[in-house]
Amino acid sequence: MSVRANNVKAKSVKPRAAPSQRLHATAIALDGKACLLVGPSGCGKSDLALRMLEAGGKLIGDDYVQVSRVGRRVRVASLKPMRGHIEVRGVGIVKLSPTRLARSAPLAAVFALVPAEQIERLPEPAWHRLLDIDVPMWKLAPFEQSAIAKLKLLLGGAAALTTRARP
């Protein structure tokens, strides 16, 4: 649409959509903060998410999620058609109760799911770049008995390592 004023043609400017992208990841919210579980198919994302649900977390999305930049933060949201569903290996696709779901939440941390032998005992702080924002990242062995406790501990303390926006 254009507008003429004083014989000068001016174009109206449409607001630009916030940068966003679709990711192969599972997202869980805990206490209003989201974490992304990333790794190849079969690495334990849905399994760890299922156990996080039992520990008080809420599912944002399983398998694929949408991340969007909102100011200097990244927000994670669910995507259709899997919204409200989780893949339970050996059972199938399961629809969850709305009380176990969160539609979106600000991203606090990324957990790269890897075999235990790939995890350093005392790792240096690491960051995962999403939409020009650095988000705290840790490697996590999803099938260790302590995986849920570690995830909750790190997600609860992720405020100490806040996201960093790049200029």
| Fraction in helix | 10-25%
- Write down the overall geometry: globular
The percent range for strand residues is 35-45%
| CATH top level label | Alpha Beta
**SS element count, helices:** 2
Please compute the radius of gyration using only Cα atoms.
19 Å
Q: What's the number of structural domains? A: 1
Order of helices and strands: EEEEEHEEEEEEEEHE
The largest pleated sheet is described as: 10 strands, mixed
What CATH architecture do you see?
A: 3-Layer(aba) Sandwich
* CATH fold label: Rossmann fold
CATH superfamily: P-loop containing nucleotide triphosphate hydrolases
| Average pLDDT rating | 86
Write down how many β-strands occur, each being a DSSP E stretch of 2 or more residues.
Answer: 14
Unreliable spans are 1-6
Structural class, by secondary structure, is mainly beta
Distance between the termini: 32 Å
